Each structure stands twice: as C-alpha cells, then as structure tokens.
C-alpha cells in the first residue's frame, strides 16, 4: 500500500497583491506597510504548490490567524489526474 507520510505540499494563502519596483522594496525597513488591493474581509486564495485549490475567509482565534475554507475549486484541464495503475 502506498504511504503519503513523506509527501510535502507547499500551502500558500493570498489575501491581496501589490506591484512595486525593486528599489522601493529594498528601501523598506522593519515596520514598513505594503498596501494590498484587498480588505481584511475579502476572500483569500488558497494555493497548493502554486496551484489554486480553494477560497476561504480569514478567521481570528485569540492571538492566532487561521483560514476557513469556503469553496474548493475544481481541477482545471492543466492538472493531470494521478495514475493508479500501469506504467508511467
């Protein structure tokens, strides 16, 4: 039987985006604020290995920040289904 214990998936959550020149980024110091094109109550995009897989909402639980999944996205045609048998 196949085990999934050693498979790593990089999960990212995107609340918003902003573009700026590298020289501006390099001048930023500790405590600098980068404005995003989103608000705190907007949906976030959830990525698995840089592929969008879901949407969610930011959830605050005491001093922790979490994400509540509100929608699971269907796989697009660019994602190949996993093969379960036969040669690769």
From TrEMBL:
Record-annotated Flagellar motor switch protein FliN-like C-terminal domain positions: 5-73
Any one annotated GO CC term: bacterial-type flagellum basal body
Molecular function in Gene Ontology: cytoskeletal motor activity
Pfam families referenced in this protein's UniProt entry, alphabetically: FliMN_C
InterPro entries per UniProt: FliN-like_C, FliN_T3SS_HrcQb, SpoA-like_sf
Keyword field contains Transmembrane helix: no
Name under which the protein is recorded: Flagellar motor switch protein FliN
Gene designation per UniProt: fliN
